[in-house]
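The following block was generated as part of the benchmark described in Methods. Ligand: nicotinamide-adenine-dinucleotide.
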Amino acid sequence: MAIGSVGVVGAGQMGNGIAHVLALAGYEVLLTDVREDALAAAPGLIGRNMDRQIARGALTAADRDAALARIVPTARLADLGPTDLIIEAATEREEIKHRIFAELLPHLKPETILTSNTSSISITRLASRTDRPEKFMGFHFMNPVPVMQLVELIRGIATDQATFDACHGVVERLGKTSATAEDYPAFIVNRILMPMINEAVYALYEGVGNVHSIDQSMRLGANHPMGPLELADFIGLDTCLAIMNVLHEGLADTKYRPCPLLVKYVEAGWLGRKTRRGFYDYRGEAPVPTR
Ligand code: NAD
Protein backbone atom coordinates (compact mmCIF):
# COMPACT_ATOMS: atom_id res chain seq x y z
CA MET A 1 0.00 0.00 0.00
CA ALA A 2 1.14 3.57 -0.67
CA ILE A 3 2.06 5.62 2.35
CA GLY A 4 1.45 9.37 2.01
CA SER A 5 0.86 10.54 5.55
CA VAL A 6 2.41 9.47 8.84
CA GLY A 7 1.31 10.03 12.44
CA VAL A 8 4.19 10.33 14.90
CA VAL A 9 3.36 9.82 18.59
CA GLY A 10 5.86 11.45 20.95
CA ALA A 11 7.71 14.70 20.26
CA GLY A 12 10.83 13.81 22.24
CA GLN A 13 14.27 13.52 20.72
CA MET A 14 13.27 10.54 18.55
CA GLY A 15 9.80 11.71 17.53
CA ASN A 16 11.18 15.08 16.43
CA GLY A 17 13.93 13.41 14.42
CA ILE A 18 11.47 11.02 12.80
CA ALA A 19 9.11 13.90 11.87
CA HIS A 20 12.14 15.77 10.49
CA VAL A 21 13.26 13.03 8.06
CA LEU A 22 9.72 12.08 7.03
CA ALA A 23 8.82 15.68 6.18
CA LEU A 24 12.03 16.15 4.19
CA ALA A 25 11.16 13.01 2.21
CA GLY A 26 7.78 14.52 1.32
CA TYR A 27 5.44 12.77 3.78
CA GLU A 28 2.66 14.71 5.50
CA VAL A 29 3.34 14.37 9.23
CA LEU A 30 0.99 14.72 12.19
CA LEU A 31 2.99 14.97 15.40
CA THR A 32 1.51 14.59 18.87
CA ASP A 33 2.69 14.51 22.50
CA VAL A 34 0.98 14.58 25.89
CA ARG A 35 3.36 17.32 27.00
CA GLU A 36 2.20 20.64 25.60
CA ASP A 37 5.65 22.18 26.06
CA ALA A 38 7.33 19.39 24.06
CA LEU A 39 4.81 19.78 21.25
CA ALA A 40 5.12 23.58 21.20
CA ALA A 41 8.93 23.36 21.09
CA ALA A 42 9.04 20.71 18.34
CA PRO A 43 8.80 22.87 15.17
CA GLY A 44 11.51 25.24 16.45
CA LEU A 45 13.81 22.36 17.38
CA ILE A 46 13.28 20.58 14.08
CA GLY A 47 13.86 23.86 12.20
CA ARG A 48 17.15 24.44 14.04
CA ASN A 49 18.28 20.89 13.26
CA MET A 50 17.45 21.50 9.59
CA ASP A 51 19.47 24.75 9.76
CA ARG A 52 22.52 22.63 10.62
CA GLN A 53 21.95 20.66 7.43
CA ILE A 54 21.67 23.95 5.52
CA ALA A 55 24.98 25.10 7.04
CA ARG A 56 26.60 21.86 5.78
CA GLY A 57 25.16 22.44 2.32
CA ALA A 58 22.95 19.35 2.61
CA LEU A 59 19.67 21.26 2.37
CA THR A 60 18.27 24.51 0.96
CA ALA A 61 16.19 27.01 2.92
CA ALA A 62 13.30 26.35 0.52
CA ASP A 63 13.46 22.57 1.29
CA ARG A 64 13.43 23.37 5.00
CA ASP A 65 10.42 25.64 4.72
CA ALA A 66 8.50 23.15 2.59
CA ALA A 67 9.33 20.32 5.02
CA LEU A 68 8.36 22.32 8.10
CA ALA A 69 5.03 23.17 6.46
CA ARG A 70 4.36 19.41 6.15
CA ILE A 71 4.61 18.89 9.94
CA VAL A 72 1.36 19.55 11.79
CA PRO A 73 1.59 19.39 15.59
CA THR A 74 -1.62 18.42 17.40
CA ALA A 75 -2.39 17.76 21.05
CA ARG A 76 -5.16 15.29 20.09
CA LEU A 77 -4.09 11.71 19.45
CA ALA A 78 -7.36 11.11 17.57
CA ASP A 79 -6.24 13.60 14.88
CA LEU A 80 -3.70 10.97 13.72
CA GLY A 81 -6.60 8.68 12.73
CA PRO A 82 -6.64 9.41 8.96
CA THR A 83 -2.90 8.77 8.45
CA ASP A 84 -1.57 5.72 6.53
CA LEU A 85 1.18 4.83 8.99
CA ILE A 86 1.63 5.41 12.72
CA ILE A 87 5.12 5.53 14.21
CA GLU A 88 4.87 5.47 18.00
CA ALA A 89 7.93 7.09 19.61
CA ALA A 90 6.70 7.80 23.14
CA THR A 91 8.50 7.07 26.41
CA GLU A 92 9.96 3.54 26.65
CA ARG A 93 7.32 2.13 29.01
CA GLU A 94 5.18 -0.73 27.86
CA GLU A 95 1.95 0.39 29.55
CA ILE A 96 2.25 3.83 27.93
CA LYS A 97 2.60 2.25 24.51
CA HIS A 98 -0.36 -0.13 25.05
CA ARG A 99 -2.47 2.83 26.16
CA ILE A 100 -1.55 4.89 23.09
CA PHE A 101 -2.48 2.13 20.65
CA ALA A 102 -5.73 1.38 22.54
CA GLU A 103 -6.70 5.04 22.39
CA LEU A 104 -5.78 5.34 18.70
CA LEU A 105 -7.55 2.22 17.39
CA PRO A 106 -11.13 3.55 17.21
CA HIS A 107 -9.96 6.47 15.05
CA LEU A 108 -7.84 4.55 12.51
CA LYS A 109 -8.61 3.48 8.96
CA PRO A 110 -8.69 -0.35 8.67
CA GLU A 111 -5.59 -0.32 6.45
CA THR A 112 -3.43 1.96 8.63
CA ILE A 113 -0.13 0.32 9.56
CA LEU A 114 0.94 0.54 13.21
CA THR A 115 4.60 0.64 14.16
CA SER A 116 6.63 1.31 17.26
CA ASN A 117 10.08 2.85 17.52
CA THR A 118 10.61 0.92 20.76
CA SER A 119 14.22 0.03 21.50
CA SER A 120 13.41 -3.21 23.24
CA ILE A 121 9.77 -4.02 23.96
CA SER A 122 8.21 -7.09 22.32
CA ILE A 123 6.58 -6.12 19.03
CA THR A 124 4.46 -9.27 19.16
CA ARG A 125 3.10 -8.35 22.59
CA LEU A 126 2.34 -4.75 21.56
CA ALA A 127 0.68 -6.05 18.38
CA SER A 128 -1.39 -8.69 20.20
CA ARG A 129 -3.39 -6.05 22.06
CA THR A 130 -4.43 -4.29 18.82
CA ASP A 131 -7.08 -5.25 16.26
CA ARG A 132 -4.40 -5.69 13.53
CA PRO A 133 -1.35 -7.73 14.63
CA GLU A 134 -0.62 -8.52 10.97
CA LYS A 135 -0.32 -4.80 10.23
CA PHE A 136 1.99 -4.09 13.16
CA MET A 137 5.79 -4.07 13.23
CA GLY A 138 8.87 -2.47 14.75
CA PHE A 139 10.30 0.61 13.01
CA HIS A 140 13.45 1.36 14.99
CA PHE A 141 15.35 4.52 14.09
CA MET A 142 18.75 5.36 15.56
CA ASN A 143 19.61 8.58 17.37
CA PRO A 144 20.12 11.25 15.98
CA VAL A 145 17.61 10.27 13.33
CA PRO A 146 18.65 12.80 10.63
CA VAL A 147 22.26 11.60 10.84
CA MET A 148 22.12 7.85 11.40
CA GLN A 149 21.81 5.63 8.35
CA LEU A 150 20.25 2.51 9.88
CA VAL A 151 16.63 1.62 10.56
CA GLU A 152 15.94 -1.77 12.14
CA LEU A 153 12.75 -3.33 10.81
CA ILE A 154 11.31 -5.87 13.23
CA ARG A 155 8.63 -8.36 12.31
CA GLY A 156 6.28 -9.54 15.03
CA ILE A 157 5.17 -13.14 14.79
CA ALA A 158 2.02 -12.08 12.88
CA THR A 159 3.42 -9.27 10.67
CA ASP A 160 2.41 -9.84 7.04
CA GLN A 161 4.61 -9.32 3.99
CA ALA A 162 2.61 -6.34 2.64
CA THR A 163 3.17 -4.47 5.91
CA PHE A 164 6.88 -5.28 5.88
CA ASP A 165 7.17 -4.20 2.23
CA ALA A 166 5.35 -0.91 2.89
CA CYS A 167 7.68 -0.05 5.80
CA HIS A 168 10.71 -1.12 3.79
CA GLY A 169 9.54 1.26 1.06
CA VAL A 170 9.37 4.13 3.57
CA VAL A 171 12.96 3.43 4.70
CA GLU A 172 14.09 3.53 1.06
CA ARG A 173 12.27 6.80 0.39
CA LEU A 174 14.03 8.27 3.43
CA GLY A 175 17.33 7.32 1.79
CA LYS A 176 18.19 5.11 4.75
CA THR A 177 19.24 1.45 5.00
CA SER A 178 17.27 -1.20 6.84
CA ALA A 179 18.40 -4.28 8.74
CA THR A 180 15.79 -6.90 9.52
CA ALA A 181 15.69 -8.21 13.07
CA GLU A 182 13.61 -10.90 14.68
CA ASP A 183 11.42 -9.94 17.60
CA TYR A 184 13.62 -10.87 20.56
CA PRO A 185 14.43 -8.47 23.42
CA ALA A 186 16.24 -5.32 22.21
CA PHE A 187 16.55 -6.72 18.65
CA ILE A 188 20.10 -6.46 17.18
CA VAL A 189 21.68 -3.05 17.82
CA ASN A 190 20.70 -2.67 21.47
CA ARG A 191 21.19 -6.38 22.27
CA ILE A 192 24.86 -5.74 21.59
CA LEU A 193 25.22 -2.04 22.47
CA MET A 194 23.41 -1.87 25.82
CA PRO A 195 25.35 -4.62 27.64
CA MET A 196 28.50 -2.74 26.60
CA ILE A 197 27.18 0.53 28.03
CA ASN A 198 26.01 -1.28 31.19
CA GLU A 199 29.48 -2.84 31.54
CA ALA A 200 31.03 0.62 31.26
CA VAL A 201 28.77 1.76 34.13
CA TYR A 202 29.91 -1.30 36.13
CA ALA A 203 33.53 -0.34 35.47
CA LEU A 204 32.72 3.11 36.86
CA TYR A 205 30.76 1.64 39.82
CA GLU A 206 33.61 -0.70 40.75
CA GLY A 207 36.20 2.06 40.39
CA VAL A 208 38.06 0.42 37.51
CA GLY A 209 38.16 3.86 35.91
CA ASN A 210 36.51 7.25 36.13
CA VAL A 211 34.14 8.73 33.53
CA HIS A 212 36.99 10.33 31.62
CA SER A 213 39.27 7.28 31.54
CA ILE A 214 36.48 4.88 30.58
CA ASP A 215 35.29 7.04 27.68
CA GLN A 216 38.81 7.83 26.53
CA SER A 217 39.75 4.14 26.64
CA MET A 218 36.93 3.16 24.32
CA ARG A 219 37.40 6.14 21.99
CA LEU A 220 41.13 5.74 21.55
CA GLY A 221 41.53 2.06 22.40
CA ALA A 222 38.59 0.61 20.47
CA ASN A 223 38.16 3.42 17.94
CA HIS A 224 34.59 4.16 19.00
CA PRO A 225 33.51 7.65 17.88
CA MET A 226 31.99 8.29 21.34
CA GLY A 227 32.79 6.82 24.74
CA PRO A 228 30.10 4.51 26.19
CA LEU A 229 29.16 6.89 29.03
CA GLU A 230 28.96 9.87 26.69
CA LEU A 231 26.79 7.74 24.41
CA ALA A 232 24.59 6.68 27.35
CA ASP A 233 23.99 10.36 28.19
CA PHE A 234 23.13 10.98 24.57
CA ILE A 235 20.63 8.09 24.43
CA GLY A 236 19.09 8.94 27.83
CA LEU A 237 19.89 6.97 30.98
CA ASP A 238 16.20 6.17 31.58
CA THR A 239 16.03 4.62 28.11
CA CYS A 240 19.27 2.66 28.76
CA LEU A 241 17.88 1.34 32.06
CA ALA A 242 14.55 0.44 30.47
CA ILE A 243 16.35 -1.55 27.76
CA MET A 244 18.56 -3.38 30.31
CA ASN A 245 15.43 -4.29 32.28
CA VAL A 246 13.79 -5.68 29.14
CA LEU A 247 16.92 -7.75 28.38
CA HIS A 248 17.16 -8.96 31.98
CA GLU A 249 13.51 -9.93 32.24
CA GLY A 250 13.09 -11.13 28.66
CA LEU A 251 16.17 -13.35 28.52
CA ALA A 252 16.25 -14.29 32.23
CA ASP A 253 20.04 -14.18 32.31
CA THR A 254 21.90 -12.42 35.14
CA LYS A 255 24.52 -11.17 32.70
CA TYR A 256 21.97 -8.47 31.75
CA ARG A 257 21.39 -7.14 35.30
CA PRO A 258 21.32 -3.32 35.22
CA CYS A 259 24.19 -1.73 37.13
CA PRO A 260 23.00 -0.23 40.46
CA LEU A 261 24.84 2.98 39.58
CA LEU A 262 22.77 3.34 36.40
CA VAL A 263 19.64 2.88 38.54
CA LYS A 264 20.95 5.55 40.94
CA TYR A 265 21.46 8.12 38.20
CA VAL A 266 17.94 7.52 36.91
CA GLU A 267 16.53 7.78 40.45
CA ALA A 268 18.28 11.14 40.79
CA GLY A 269 16.67 12.34 37.55
CA TRP A 270 20.14 12.64 36.01
CA LEU A 271 19.03 11.24 32.67
CA GLY A 272 21.83 12.57 30.46
CA ARG A 273 21.81 15.40 27.94
CA LYS A 274 18.03 15.85 27.96
CA THR A 275 18.09 16.83 31.65
CA ARG A 276 21.51 18.51 31.31
CA ARG A 277 23.12 16.10 33.76
CA GLY A 278 24.09 12.43 33.55
CA PHE A 279 27.56 10.91 33.56
CA TYR A 280 28.57 14.43 32.50
CA ASP A 281 27.21 17.76 33.71
CA TYR A 282 26.13 19.81 30.68
CA ARG A 283 25.05 22.95 32.51
CA GLY A 284 28.30 24.83 31.89
CA GLU A 285 30.12 25.62 28.68
CA ALA A 286 31.86 22.25 28.36
CA PRO A 287 30.63 18.87 29.70
CA VAL A 288 32.20 18.02 33.10
CA PRO A 289 32.38 14.38 34.31
CA THR A 290 30.22 13.78 37.41
CA ARG A 291 32.52 11.04 38.78
P1 NAD B 1 12.03 11.21 25.08
O1 NAD B 1 11.91 11.10 26.55
O2 NAD B 1 12.95 12.22 24.49
O3 NAD B 1 10.59 11.48 24.42
C1 NAD B 1 9.45 10.73 24.71
C2 NAD B 1 8.25 11.64 24.51
O4 NAD B 1 7.07 10.82 24.60
C3 NAD B 1 8.14 12.72 25.57
O5 NAD B 1 8.08 14.00 24.97
C4 NAD B 1 6.83 12.38 26.29
O6 NAD B 1 6.09 13.51 26.72
C5 NAD B 1 6.08 11.63 25.19
N1 NAD B 1 4.98 10.81 25.68
C6 NAD B 1 4.90 10.10 26.83
N2 NAD B 1 3.68 9.51 26.91
C7 NAD B 1 2.99 9.86 25.81
C8 NAD B 1 1.68 9.60 25.34
N3 NAD B 1 0.84 8.84 26.03
N4 NAD B 1 1.30 10.15 24.17
C9 NAD B 1 2.14 10.93 23.46
N5 NAD B 1 3.39 11.23 23.86
C10 NAD B 1 3.81 10.71 25.02
O7 NAD B 1 12.38 9.72 24.56
P2 NAD B 1 13.07 9.31 23.18
O8 NAD B 1 14.53 9.15 23.38
O9 NAD B 1 12.54 10.16 22.08
O10 NAD B 1 12.50 7.82 23.01
C11 NAD B 1 11.22 7.57 22.47
C12 NAD B 1 11.16 6.13 21.99
O11 NAD B 1 12.19 5.92 21.02
C13 NAD B 1 11.36 5.07 23.07
O12 NAD B 1 10.55 3.96 22.79
C14 NAD B 1 12.83 4.71 22.93
O13 NAD B 1 13.13 3.42 23.39
C15 NAD B 1 12.98 4.80 21.43
N6 NAD B 1 14.37 5.03 20.95
C16 NAD B 1 15.20 5.88 21.61
C17 NAD B 1 16.50 6.07 21.14
C18 NAD B 1 17.45 7.00 21.83
O14 NAD B 1 18.65 6.98 21.53
N7 NAD B 1 17.00 7.85 22.72
C19 NAD B 1 16.93 5.41 19.97
C20 NAD B 1 16.03 4.58 19.30
C21 NAD B 1 14.75 4.39 19.80
